[in-house]
Automatic annotation (TrEMBL):
Keyword terms, alphabetized: Monooxygenase, Oxidoreductase
Residue intervals of the FAD-binding domain: 2-317
Protein name stated in the entry: FAD-dependent monooxygenase
Organism annotation: Fictibacillus marinisediminis
Segments forming a coiled coil: none
């Protein structure tokens, strides 16, 4: 009998295991993967504190991924740029590095049993309460595990969410953009680590420096065009048309393959029921345009760990701790869910010639640029009112 069974050993599952494992709980961390290697992700990470709490911050800092402290937005030929304000720095740590740092911390804790290559197929129930899981190992043998709590940290196609009939609270109402990305060498970095965002006529592109002097470049576009975008020459051609990037391209070369996802259906699900709880993408899957999935997974795991500790020590009831956890999850996730939908919808709005000319004036007449700044609070208010509608 484990105190906790965690299904899924990536950022949400491994971090939950670390937080509760350090408190001495007897934990099973199970994943169907044979090793926790690369996964779909463009890797932008913005939180700082939670990685210190996990004690992996030093390894992240020496991963070779530069600190990103600027944000640059290109709208057609115009450029808006500033220091980052939502975080002191972001980083783009490849997932094979980040997830392996988490696993190294897990392995320091003898009270966490890690079982890889086990595909969880079913749950064990007793009087409508989930009391365990059933998996199949590589040889087709059935494995049964009993625990006081079962956590679904098993990502956006969560088996635990399906088996527990976790209710969908909110679902995307738009045709969500496909995502395709690759790691490229042959791009001169900007002097200060910068996340670059490009609004183009048919796509949104994001470019950020990663380790080894490479850049991760992701394009988001209508899913009907997915096949043609998958052609490496076409993808490279799209990169060379990014007007502020093209002068920095010396000898563009794709490292590895293009990776991505055609159909994304964002959702927010109910978090818990009797004996089970969801965390990370299993609980809420927000479109990657938000760039917050990793931080969300890890921050909600930290809060879940605090609540589960109270429950496992018989300090508070299941209902009370789960209510607290869900409140945190909702307050964190819902604004991001709606913002990611609005950003995607904005992609369809074309910019007219006259709007382009007016923006060029604002960017190139210093007095207009200064006056724009002087009136920026009023403009921000108008834009925020628009967003609320
Ligand atoms: C194209 C793309 C780009 C992205 N870019 C970013 C970004 O820049 N920044 C960011 O913050 N987020 C990004 N994200 C989102 C981010 O990758 C996810 O939010 C994050 O990985 C969620 O972590 P998780 O631990 O909840 O789930 P996952 O990382 O999906 O891990 C789930 C684990 O569960 C295991 N599992 C699943 N089912 C079973 C089963 N039945 N039995 C046993 N094990 C099982 C899987 O093998 C996997 O190891 C991106 C996502 C995509 C698709």
């Amino acid at each position: 009998m484990y105190d906790l069974i965690i299904v899924g050993a990536r950022c949400s599952g491994a971090s939950l295991a670390i937080f509760l494992g350090r408190l001495g709980y007897n934990i099973l961390l199970v994943d169907r993967a044979t090793h926790v290697g690369p996964t779909l992700s463009t890797h932008i990470i913005g939180e700082v504190d939670v990685y210190q709490h996990l004690r992996i911050e030093k390894r992240m800092n020496s991963s070779g991924a530069p600190f990103l402290t600027r944000f640059r937005v290109n709208v057609d030929s115009h450029l808006f740029e500033s220091d980052l304000i939502v975080t002191e720095r972001a980083m783009s740590v490849r997932r094979e590095l980040l997830d392996s740092y988490l696993m190294e911390e897990v392995k320091k804790l003898p009270n966490i049993k890690v079982e890889l290559a086990i595909n969880i197929k079913d749950v064990i129930k007793s009087n409508e309460k989930i009391t365990g899981v059933i998996g199949i190992d590589e040889n087709g043998n059935e494995k049964r595990y009993q625990g006081k709590v079962v956590v679904g940290a098993d990502g956006r196609n969560s088996t635990i969410a399906s088996l527990t009939n976790a209710r969908i609270e909110q679902q995307s109402s738009i045709d969500e953009l496909a995502v395709l990305y690759g790691y490229f060498s042959g791009i001169q970095p900007l002097p200060v680590g910068t996340i670059e965002w490009y609004w183009t006529k048919d796509s949104i592109a994001i470019c950020n420096p990663i380790d080894g002097g490479k850049h991760c470049i992701a394009f988001m576009f209508h899913p009907s065009n997915f096949k043609s975008w998958c052609n490496v020459d076409e993808f490279s051609c799209k990169i060379s048309k990014l007007n502020m990037l093209s002068p920095r391209i010396t000898n563009l070369s794709l490292e590895g393959n293009l990776k991505g996802i055609k159909r994304i259906n964002s959702y927010v699900k109910n978090t818990h029921g009797e004996g089970w709880v969801l965390v990370g993408d299993a609980s809420a899957n927000i479109h990657p345009i938000s760039g917050v999935g990793i931080d969300n997974a890890i921050c909600t795991s930290e809060v879940l760990a605090i609540q589960l500790d109270k429950y496992l020590r018989n300090q508070e009831s299941w209902t009370d701790v789960m209510t607290e956890y869900k409140k945190y999850r909702d307050e964190r996730i819902y604004p991001q869910f709606y913002a990611s939908q609005k950003t995607q919808a904005l992609h369809k709005t074309a910019i007219t010639e006259s709007q382009n000319s007016a923006t060029s004036m604002l960017c190139t007449f210093p007095s207009l640029a200064k006056n724009l700044t002087i009136r920026s609070e009023a403009i921000l208010q108008i834009l925020q009112e628009d967003e609320h509608e």
